[in-house]
Design a protein that fits this description.
heterodimer; A: mainly beta; 7-stranded mixed beta sheet; B: mainly beta; about 0% helix
Chain lengths: ~120, ~110
Amino acid sequence: DVKVTQSSRYLVKRTGEKVFLECVQDMDHENMFWYRQDPGLGLRLIYFSYDVKMKEKGDIPEGYSVSREKKERFSLILESASTNQTSMYLCASSSIPPLIGRNSPLHFGNGTRLTVT
Amino acid sequence: DAKTTQPNSMESNEEEPVHLPCNHSTISGTDYIHWYRQLPSQGPEYVIHGLTSNVNNRMASLAIAEDRKSSTLILHRATLRDAAVYYCIRVEYNFNKFYFGSGTKLNVKP
């Protein structure tokens, strides 16, 4: 079974702090994603990465950066945390299917609930 | 808009079938339709996916309209464990862009 592990389940940080959210997957997946989830807004894509050192902006990248130095690890960085970044953060991974049309679902971690005070 | 639209909430009785609708009127010809569900305090999990034809698996069935502008997830006999938020999402053919909407919260009554 694919396992996506997020380093913290709950995190409380102060405004202005630099925050690192870590995510590790154990299935050699090429793609990794960071989403945030807020009530009434569903899941919104922050950044994704399709290879080591590669990244692309999602729908809401402002205030965030990412790092992917190794294939299994994808980090989300809040350079200067603000209260409007209080949210549930979900990491996910997926593989590139060997053939077009074959399935390649997302595998999610259980999330990190970040509170910025 | 790349996202899908779903009703905010639905209710079902236990042991009865549930039909969860989704509109994706701007879907392109190569986009897949995926369904995920999220149980409380967990990340979303994959349920089913399809392109043009109806699909069945052990969890659910997926009915896709002929024009592909809408689809329906069918749970044949709802159980209390099926109470969750269900997301219908568009997936680009190379599986690196997944567009989530706000989902449908399904409540199952005993």
